[in-house]
Amino acid sequence: MTTRRAVTAVLFVLLIGLQYRLWVGESSFAHVDGLDKRAVKIEVGNETKQRRNEVLKAEIYDLKNGLDAVEEKARTEWGLVKADETFYLLVDKDKSQP
């Protein structure tokens, strides 16, 4: 009878140990779920960065191969005007007074 109790106690301890690892340990459901969520975030970040890289590659190609992109960049970023053009600055009266 004591052997039977000892075997039952050992099996119970093994069951508790396995349950602990299943629910709390390193390979637990919570740990795996956390890793899945982290992987999804990383994939979304990678997709965003990939789209940004494609835009930058297109911009680099335009800057290397076409003068239109260079002219547009000079006009928007540096406010450059061609020699035969007249520059007009329109000021909104409401916004110009503090």
How would you describe the overall organization of this protein?
By secondary structure, the protein is mainly alpha-helical. It has one domain (2-82). The protein has helices at residues 2-23, 29-65, 67-78, 93-96. Helix 2 (29-65) crosses helix 3. The model has no long low-confidence stretch (mean pLDDT 84).
Strand content: under 5%
Arithmetic mean of pLDDT: 84
Number of helices: 4
The outline comes out as rod-shaped
* Strand count: 0
Q: SSE order in H/E notation?
A: HHHH
Low-confidence stretches: none
How many domain regions?
1
Helix share, percent:
over 70%
Write the layout of secondary structure elements.
Layout: H1 2-23, H2 29-65, H3 67-78, H4 93-96
Helix pairs in contact: 2-3
